[in-house]
Fold:
Amino acid sequence: MNKLHKNSNRAEILNASLCGVEFEFYSKLGLKETTKQLEDLLGRSIKIEDKAHSDFEPTDKEFKIEPDMSGGKGLMELVTGAMPYRNARILMIKVLGWIRKNGYTTERSGIHLNISFDKDFLEEKNMISRMNTLKFILDFNEKQVYKLFPDRETSVYAKSIKWVMPKVDAFHFNSANTSVHNYDFPNTKYYGINFEKKLKNYLEFRYLGGKDYENKQESIFYLWEMFIYQMWKSCNNPDFTEENKLELRRILHKNEPVADSLRDFRNVNKNWSKIEILVDLKDHGETIDMYWDRMKHKVMNLITQGGMTEGIVNYDSDIGHIQIKDGKFPVCFGLEGYDFIDCDIRGNIEKSNLFGCKVEGSMLLRCDLYQNTEVKESKIESCYVHGSCNLTNSYVFGRDGVFKGKMTGGIFREGMMSDNARFEDVEIVVSKKIKS
Structure:
């Protein structure tokens, strides 16, 4: 078996790649019939799981299918093990054809590609885990991805990786001293590429998907090969090129409003005119200056990670807590430890309190919901839901969750519920009754 080398051609690189695929889709058939037909079509055993992100690890010979409530009730996810690209390509053609005939996809459906290289072809076995992530980000042609899948540019699950910020506020760009140690950049699963998977020596590409993705076969193949080749290039050419440095300068220039706001809170309102900053419910400039260093990163995360477009942000100095009133969060992720009051939210929030909010298409983890908060088509894990709150077509799970509200449609997978909780057309799997 010939080893790959730095200047291997495209065909050799593709031949050495391994790919696992995750298909999110809706089926017009039941789960068992869907599984049976896909087993017959693909010539693989498929294990049926009863919850998302189950512990079972698929192989190239045994896949799994499981519910995925990130897209509401009825969304299924077929997960394969890693296999040679040529085999994964044939599988892709078959599954897309099956979906066209027997199912459908919506804007909340995605395809995830898990890409690595066969170690038998490599001289450096762990080259992906050692890859310079910043180098990859600067090399990557994200514009081509969004050109072919434009709707994914605003997806909460495929956020742009072209976000780089200096690690220190007083930073001067020097192209002659470009170093990965000087910058912060994407490192969570909510971006178009999940760089957390580097530790396992592969990358997860989350860009592809959206309504009717099953009709975009050629675009999927084009980008798939681009992803593979880009990985190889970045791993084997680690030095920053002049083009990389120009791209870094462009990204930093785009993020200058964030850097300016970290230096002076007054620039928040200059750059985002519908966002107001308060301390203890007062807009006294000198007081805000005094507390800005304590609160600025938490405030700016609302914009950079939360996609906040408008609202009032208040810092309660007595408890050191950030509160947001009338906030708009169309594409948020990774927000943790806030109080949201009368906010519109779409995205992912953890360990926060929600009062009178409207939430849709979101993932809430270990949050407390109060004061008529309305939640639609979302995943609610290990949360407290007050009796005044309403959930619609959602998925509730987590054994330590407490539910006292009203739920219409969806699945109550597990958790504790009060004797006053109300359910209409809800599938209840496991529950434990508690007194109100």
Remarks:
- Residues 10-250 form one domain.
- The mean pLDDT is 90.
